[in-house]
Amino acid sequence: MSEILRIIPLGGLGEVGKNMMAVEYGQDILIIDVGVMFPENDMWGVDLVIPDWSYLRDKFDRVVGIVITHGHEDHIGALPYLLQEMQAPVYATRLAFGFIEGKLKRQGLSDVTEFHTIRIGDKTAIGAFEVEFLAMNHSIPDGVGLAIRTPAGLIVHSGDFKFDYTPTQGASADFGRLAELGREGVLALLADSTGAERPGFTPSESEIDPVFAEIFRQAPGRIIIATFSSLISRVQQVLNCAARYGRKVALAGYSMQENARIARELGYLQVPANTLISLEEARNLSPDQIVFLVTGSQGEPGAALARIARGRHRDIDILPGDTVVLSASPIPGNEEGVARVINRLFQRGAEVIYPPLAQVHVSGHASQEEQKLLLALTRPKYFIPIHGELRHLHAHARTARALGIPPENIFIVENGMVIEFENGVGRVGERVPGGYVFVDGSGVGDVGPAVLRDREALARDGFVIAVVTIDQASGGLIGHPEIVSRGFVYLRESSDLLDEAARRVEEALEEALKGSNSRSERSLESLIRDVLGRFLYDETRRRPMILPVVTSM
Amino acid sequence: MSEILRIIPLGGLGEVGKNMMAVEYGQDILIIDVGVMFPENDMWGVDLVIPDWSYLRDKFDRVVGIVITHGHEDHIGALPYLLQEMQAPVYATRLAFGFIEGKLKRQGLSDVTEFHTIRIGDKTAIGAFEVEFLAMNHSIPDGVGLAIRTPAGLIVHSGDFKFDYTPTQGASADFGRLAELGREGVLALLADSTGAERPGFTPSESEIDPVFAEIFRQAPGRIIIATFSSLISRVQQVLNCAARYGRKVALAGYSMQENARIARELGYLQVPANTLISLEEARNLSPDQIVFLVTGSQGEPGAALARIARGRHRDIDILPGDTVVLSASPIPGNEEGVARVINRLFQRGAEVIYPPLAQVHVSGHASQEEQKLLLALTRPKYFIPIHGELRHLHAHARTARALGIPPENIFIVENGMVIEFENGVGRVGERVPGGYVFVDGSGVGDVGPAVLRDREALARDGFVIAVVTIDQASGGLIGHPEIVSRGFVYLRESSDLLDEAARRVEEALEEALKGSNSRSERSLESLIRDVLGRFLYDETRRRPMILPVVTSM
Predict the structure, then answer these.
(1) Is B358 inside any structural domain?
(2) What percent of chain A has pLDDT over 70?
(3) What's the predicted TM-score (pTM) here?
(4) Domain of A436?
């Protein structure tokens, strides 16, 4: 009797980030990637978002392994959270492990977890699955795709990918192997949709070299380059270019220093002799001898570049003649922050170079022509666009339809929608949990819609609190109402308004408490809310959150 | 003796929006545009941003006129606020007046203000200035550039512009006149920098026609098109296309209905017979006969498109087979909101078409080649890039340098930096106020950095309030501390945490109040802040705003 093969996306579908997927056959469950997502602008105060894996919680003992496709945060960042709940062997390439190890160490998890280092081309049996690690290109070394053989058929998972014929590090994707899999017969292809709206072919990493060379040739003073700290090949390009043009490179930003150290130890980064220096050593060099390679290419307020732009970096100030290069494109949602940093750098007198003014960055994700090539090589029966917002999944599906995949064989699903394969036939099955879990401080999952709604309201108009004490014996007011407010009006200039608000509350309460009929705290609170809300709206056209605190004594 | 000509940008330089400028010669001051800006993401709860015109406040009697280049909000939106403070004749083309009038009426200002309707090509003496209104192209009819003649020289101000050889409405920019001005001798060109990072030539409005035609030909069901309500030519294109393909158009969204009404009354919009219908009438038509033209192309949560996407629009639900067209590009900062709307529309089953998937929108602003053409035609001695963030001004300056304008004749300035011309020589002079004035509810300028910082903190971690009553006689605590919190933790699951917090506060206060030494309210407040802050951070790693309320009685 044939078992059902189930593919269960738990993250990364219908959103950007926190990629996670479960593949189920019989009793065995294989997990692919366990990433985090950075909060969107309306996830007020949330630090991090991790996948909702509550579907797996009563099935943890059936998990035979966790396969990591590459070492980016959106594929590994939630591992420490998952491994606190369950244990299973983790499979990843060496660089990904380098990045994972530090995280797990900080949580005391590195000793209890079973690691399997994989190499591109390896085939490994993991429970009911045979997993083959496929050479793909991406903006980090050793990113892999997966060929997953199950008794129900062969699944190909692209990981995050692009096709780079002239990568600056490592080899090209293994086109031949992908074609062989296609001949063998791919039941379903799951492929990265991030770049699905972009026509054409994503440029090769090596196209950046001449652009960097030109910048290095012309820059009169120091060069400050911001990029993703995990983009080791870009770091290598900067080091090479610096060595060629007689400059030294100093790294700024924790993750830049840390990732470079790990990549160097593992042999992914070759530092030309006498090229890497410390920030202190950079002080003694003339401006035309210096390159700073820094974090903060996404405009993150706490990272090195934003601090430099605000004049708040301990080691790096903008000097006249400095050239700043943003070797990155803003991830959707970060545009405003990146623009602010660029503007501030100009304000401080730097020359700023950024895409599209110059091709100082290329995407790590396939554009439409590469997505077509992957489809043409693997010739899948079913196609499941993964990794992306719904708009990207739909654009990718459009491409697949154009290549002749029948619409009914394309599954556009969101997290938690199970895809089942039985006797070679696929269908969309049940829906399991698959949403956001918010991490805020040390709390995982304790901040939900109610708290976020409050934060949103507070962000808009602040709050006003009225503290009132009632004499239990007499039923009258003790003292005067006290009004406390933040984020509503500028307090120094609003004492009249708040005094009048207190007077209105007092008046209304005295009226209500008059006579013998005693009132419940709840009814007094609702009275205060009404009186105060109406008065403040009439005066200011704002609607602060109003909290009455009524104490009886 | 020669007077000094002073150009004083009060808005729109170093930012996008709230364009405003003063030109001063002798005793006379001419104001150009009085726009608003929509708040950026870190302007918490602010409704609107208007220019800081405090520099003009003691000079209002010297203002000889206010010239409006076109009827977009970022050029007219703050007029009602300015005209409440001062009065001067307003000069604008008919459509701009149409849009201004409603605003002023709502403020009771339309009767007291002196209006001068201008036509393209007019030359008008306004105080010491002779102002000529130049034909330019932009994404609204009748946008003008300005040639301002002063005894100190000729200034050309581009307004918002592009060059469109085949506009769908009105004529092309008057290249000949611009060239004549160039021959006459332009002392300074002030030109729109919005598109300065974009190479090439901005496509013509008419390039959208075949794209719309293709969509109308193929759409199986209803078509919903979202665009800027002021983009009258786009509205016209939709009406024309609907008439050609046998569809009726219904308008949704207040500003869409209102602007179309005004434009139609003034003859800027020609409605083909039997094409415009009401939302009610649309109910009786089959899907392939309907076009909805709606507001919300920027993803604004309250506008029609976002409500449709959330399933919250009174008249329009997404049906299978619907095609939604976003005939707009996201303004920087709106990307995330627009993406969310697109994703939700897909989720509801619509086909969604948006740039860059199809050319359903073109910019209203000049790209680099058009900026070069304007420079080449007017051949100014000095160049002042206007309208844009610093990054845009710098990109525009780079273009001007490439055309041979000496760097020392290019002034990249921000709001409030005065540019002076004397005997044909320009320089950057003093700095006057020129920042943001926030409008929040009915308050203008009363919300500043302190309030915004509080809102930011509240948005991040919410607040916790401890209410404590001290017995003046005994110096001891009356009752127990009361803890009130919002936006910090989910209250239903956190009663233990907050109870323990109250206990800690009580303990600390009892310790502090022990013995005879009475403590000031202030010192008790600071104690509560410390104890509560430390406890809550230890437990949650969050830092809510903490407010102690200590009452003595």
Answers:
(1) no
(2) 99
(3) 0.93
(4) 5-200+363-441
